[in-house]
Design goal:
Elements: H1 16-28, H2 33-51, E1 64-65, E2 77-85, E3 89-98, E4 106-113, H3 123-140, E5 148-153, E6 157-162, E7 165-170, H4 185-195, E8 201-207, H5 209-218, E9 226-230, E10 234-241, E11 254-258, H6 276-284, H7 294-297, H8 299-315, H9 336-342, H10 348-358, H11 365-400, E12 406-413, H12 420-427, E13 431-437, H13 443-467, H14 474-492, E14 505-506, E15 519-526, E16 531-539, E17 542-550, H15 554-557, H16 561-578, E18 587-592, E19 596-600, E20 603-606, H17 623-633, E21 640-645, H18 647-658, E22 662-668, E23 672-679, E24 692-696, H19 714-721, H20 732-735, H21 737-753, H22 774-780, H23 787-796, H24 803-838, E25 844-851, H25 853-857, H26 861-872, E26 876-882, H27 886-905
Parallel strand pairs: 2-5, 5-8, 9-12, 12-13, 15-18, 18-21, 22-25, 25-26
Antiparallel strand pairs: 1-11, 2-3, 3-4, 6-7, 9-10, 10-11, 14-24, 15-16, 16-17, 19-20, 22-23, 23-24
Helix pairs in contact: 2-11, 3-4, 5-13, 6-8, 8-9, 8-11, 9-10, 10-11, 11-12, 14-24, 16-17, 18-27, 19-21, 21-22, 21-24, 23-24, 24-26
The structure holds adenosine-5'-diphosphate (ADP) and magnesium ion.
Length: 906
């Protein structure tokens, strides 16, 4: 189809031939919808080029980060000064923000005309002038003497690296002061202000006029995330996903980007839509070849385009025939303002006549009509091109936020905005943009940016203070490592064993698998989220298994021991029935992941329940015996328990089957624990000096004797108090899946209380225990996850999060999971260092078999753990091997090893 943006041509006037000639430029100025679509696509490409670090330097559309990360939320408050540098004047404002989104701010302002030569003179003079304006302004209002923050609106391309640090890249719009390009404009203004002895005025933010417009429009209710300026020049800005703005080192949240799209087309990409008239305009400008898009759109040029079209029509003899038209050779005789008046529906014709007559052109009725058509074509084209640019921005936002549909407000300044929405709608149908014309310029927006900057800085400080106790230094972690080492020694010693918080339980597992194990086994896995029964076949060609998950209801976990073990037997019987195994008596390995005093491979006295279990009558009993008794009660006679193992041991054994270096087992799931191969001579609690034995550390209880008290925060104490084993498993409660979400929840509550999150609004849902699951940490911390998605997760919890809120929640999650990983590393460092010393090695190479959903699913945990371990134990080369189904496989392997040992014994 044809271009949708042009008004229909009027009925033919004059001869056919003449009409055709007159219509030629109109056709050239008409951009069909397909071509506009192509312009939009090229704009999108150019924008991507500007955003990418690799291609940024060659990009025409520079996509400059503005270091503005959020739109105002209405809570901004205080007295703010604003200085706006405009085309021919300086505007100073004092804006009093009331901190109540609904009330408009109080504004006092004064405009100072600039002496004509100052824009071409010395930079210093320009900034001195601005500072003088400010001093005069402050003298005229009763300005307080306390610190006054100032926002500076500076409408030129800057390389910004912070909100208050911006190097001018190059002057434009007729400015060319010396000694400013390449310099930090904030500093130049601040020192000029000092010279005026305004010592209480601090320049805290610099922004472009597009940003000011976006912010001003944001103050009227809904946030506005895009702004367009079509004034003398043209430019736009929008809120982008920060990680896409590679030139800014921010990776999370949003970042306002100034497109600098005036230069779009400087590499020739617009050549197919440029008309001969545009080429003339460009050649006669002071910067030929540059700012090609701006020259199609900006008001500095529209009058000139019309003048060149008129000149061409005169040459074709279809306009002003027989009149003297020399005046049309004079640059800038037609002003854009006049063009805009001529296109007016009611008074446009009269205006055209007046303008043309003033130029001495004596227009006929038909001349006036044609001139109006041309003006309309030029303005419509500018609007259509702007709409294509806007469509590119909207589609980019929509894609990068992974939305199916984008609904957004667009702040606009300049007179050309009327035509935008319909064309934008055609070009980016997936986006719904509402244009908000800016009525009060950029000043209020600038004040808000300044206030936001102040508020964020103050909040950041408070958040840092609140999170500081959770941030462990290298020295802290070395201390944890040393304490763990001490507790290990205590736990191994016959005399000291009773007083150690790390119990160091012997497992009677004396070796890891060697690959010769064979047979068919039953296995039980109890002690985690799921209770499972398995059948495992260990054969020459590997291990095969089948399993079934059974639920243990909380009532059974926390009821009587009899009921618990009855339930377990019922599950085994159900499994055997399903697997057709009821007739066989298979050796059974029992993975029982609670601290046990083991008296033999098949004799394990429960020392205490953990992880939410509390069945009565079990502590102090041999769990194998409890299982056998239940089997008897249920008349299940074919049960032959040969080994009880902890899940850490199972994990080590199953990884050991694939890697003989695997001599450590680690679990980071619901709980956390570790085991490793210790020298028998160091195990004071078991007779014998020869060989090694696997020690189940039960390190979850590390710190239960108070040795970690310095590291616990208020949040940890709150979490601990609400557990069924308060005061116990203190190390575990800093690290494992059952607790991390709870720690985060308590921190979020504290942040809300301090008005640092969710605008301080009380969140009833957040009061609910366990509502913030540890798996949310994994999702929220995924690298490059659009914050929109974080917001969606929080929304499911009925938490209305702004982007800043989402960022803060992400930061809290990162802090908590980082601490967990680092503490885990400190514990492991103690283990590997001890093994290295045991063996008298300068360098130890060892593999850790790991299991647990937190370790496996969290996007950063394993990385942080391994990195910290390298730092803390530089003489150990530690490989991590994730176990697949370690608990089940491992129990079978222990049973197999036991069976082998038994045959070799006899
Ligand atoms: P267990 O340790 O009980 O044998 P898992 O290793 O599966 O079982 O760990 C379960 C724990 O992992 C749960 O307590 C839960 O908090 C945590 N978890 C579940 N999904 C995730 C996830 N995607 N990211 C991090 N932690 C998770
Ligand atoms: Mg498990």
């Amino acid at each position: 189809h044809r271009g949708a943006q042009l008004p229909p041509l009027p009925p033919a006037a004059g001869s056919r031939l003449q009409w055709k000639d007159a219509a030629k430029p109109l056709l050239a100025l008409t951009i069909p919808l397909e071509a506009l679509q192509a312009v939009k696509d090229r704009m999108l490409q150019a924008m991507r080029k500007g955003l990418s670090r690799q291609t940024h330097a060659q990009a025409n559309v520079r996509m400059l980060p503005a270091y503005i990360c959020s739109t105002p939320d209405g809570t901004e408050k205080g007295d703010i000064l604003v200085v706006e540098l405009c085309q021919s004047h300086v505007r100073t404002l004092r804006v009093t923000l009331l901190g109540d989104g609904n009330q408009s701010p109080q504004v006092t302002y004064k405009i100072f005309d600039m002496p004509g030569d100052i824009t071409q003179g010395k930079g210093e003079a320009l900034f001195d002038f601005i500072a003088q304006c400010l001093r005069q302004f402050l003298a005229g209002i009763s300005s307080p003497q306390h610190r006054l923050p100032l926002g500076f609106v500076f409408p030129f391309s800057c390389r910004q690296t912070q909100l208050d640090k911006a190097e001018l890249i190059s002057w434009s719009k007729g400015f060319s002061c010396s000694d400013v390009e390449g310099k930090d404009v904030v500093q130049l203004l601040q020192s000029a202000i000092k010279k005026q002895e305004l010592h209480h005025v601090d320049v805290v933010a610099l922004m472009n006029d597009t940003v000011g417009t976006m912010m001003t429009c944001s103050m009227r209710g809904e946030p506005c995330e895009v702004a367009l300026i079509v004034g003398t020049g043209t430019n736009s800005c929008f809120m982008a996903e920060a990680q896409l703005v590679e030139m800014a080192e921010e990776i999370s949240g949003q970042m306002c980007v100034i497109t600098e799209w005036g230069c779009f087309g400087d590499d020739g990409t617009l050549s197919d839509i440029l008309t001969p008239y545009d080429q003339h305009v460009d050649q006669e400008s002071f910067n030929p070849g540059e700012k090609r898009f701006e020259k199609l759109v900006g008001s500095l040029y529209l009058g000139e385009i019309v003048r060149h079209v008129l000149t061409a029509l005169v040459a074709e003899k279809v306009l002003f025939t027989g009149r003297s038209v020399a005046i049309l050779r004079t640059k800038d005789v037609l002003k854009t303002q006049q063009v805009l008046e001529i296109i007016n529906n009611e008074e446009g014709m009269a205006k055209a006549r007046r303008v043309l007559e003033a130029l001495g052109l004596q227009p006929s009725e038909q001349d006036c009509c044609r001139v109006q058509q041309i003006c309309r074509a030029v303005v419509s084209r500018a609007a259509a091109l702007c709409a294509a640019g806007l469509a590119a921005i909207l589609s980019h936002m929509c894609q990068s936020q992974e939305l199916e549909r984008l609904v957004v407000n667009v702040g606009v300044d300049g007179e050309l905005y009327r035509g935008y929405t319909s064309v934008t709608g055609l070009l980016a149908p997936e986006c719904m943009a509402t244009l908000l014309p800016s009525v009060d310029g950029t000043g209020q927006g600038a004040a808000v940016v300044t206030a936001v900057a102040l508020r964020l800085a103050a909040q950041r400080h408070e958040v840092d203070q609140l999170l500081a106790p959770l941030q462990l230094s290298r020295a802290d972690l070395e201390r944890v490592q040393a304490l763990m080492r001490r507790e290990m020694e205590l736990g191994l010693g016959l005399e000291s064993h009773a007083n150690a918080s790390v119990r160091m339980l012997p497992t009677y597992v004396r070796g890891t698998p060697d690959g010769t194990e064979r047979g068919e086994f039953l296995a039980l896995d109890l002690g985690g989220t799921n209770f499972r029964v398995l059948v495992v076949r260990v054969a020459q060609d590997g291990i095969r298994m089948a399993s079934e998950i059974y639920v243990i209801p909380t009532a059974v976990m926390q009821g009587t021991g009899e009921a618990l073990f009855n339930h377990i037997i019922e599950c085994i019987m159900d499994f055997q029935l399903k697997q057709n195994l009821l007739e066989q008596v298979l050796p059974l390995g029992f993975t029982f992941s609670f601290p046990c005093q083991q008296l033999g491979l098949d004799k394990a006295v429960l020392l205490s329940w953990t992880k939410g279990f509390s069945a009565s009558g079990c502590v102090g009993q041999d769990v194998v015996q409890l299982l056998r008794e239940a089997a008897q009660r249920k008349q299940h006679l074919g049960l032959k328990v040969v080994a009880v193992v902890n899940d850490t041991v199972g994990t080590m054994m199953s990884c050991g089957y694939d890697d003989p270096k695997c001599e450590i087992g680690l679990i980071v799931g619901t709980g956390t624990n570790a085991c490793y191969m210790e020298e028998m001579r160091n195990v004071g609690t078991v007779e014998g000096e020869q060989g090694r034995m696997c020690i189940n550390m039960e390190w979850g209880a590390f710190g239960d004797n108070g040795c970690l008290d310095d590291f616990f925060t208020d949040f940890d104490r709150l979490v601990d108090e609400k557990t069924i084993n308060a005061g116990k498993q203190r190390f575990e409660k800093l690290i494992s899946g059952m607790y991390l979400g709870e720690i985060v929840r308590h921190i979020l509550l504290a942040l809300v209380e301090k008005q640092l999150l969710f605008r301080g609004k009380p969140c009833p849902k957040l009061q609910t225990r366990d509502i913030f699951q540890t798996k949310f940490l994994s999702t929220i911390e995924i690298d490059g996850l659009a914050l929109q998605q974080v917001r969606a997760i929080l929304q499911d919890l009925e938490l209305q999060a702004s982007f800043e809120d989402s960022l803060l929640v992400q930061k809290v999650c990162q802090t908590v999971s980082l601490r967990a990983a680092q503490l885990c590393a400190a514990g492991l460092a103690a283990v590997v260092e001890k093994m290295r010393e045991n063996r008298g090695l300068a360098q130890l190479a060892v593999t850790v078999g790991v299991d647990g959903t937190l370790y496996k699913m969290h996007p950063r945990f394993s990385q942080h753990l391994q990195q910290m371990l390298r730092d803390l134990a530089p003489n150990c080369t530690v490989t991590f091997l994730q176990s697949e189904d370690g608990s089940g496989k491992g129990a079978a392997l222990v049973a197999a090893v036991a069976a082998l040992l038994r045959t070799s014994d006899s």
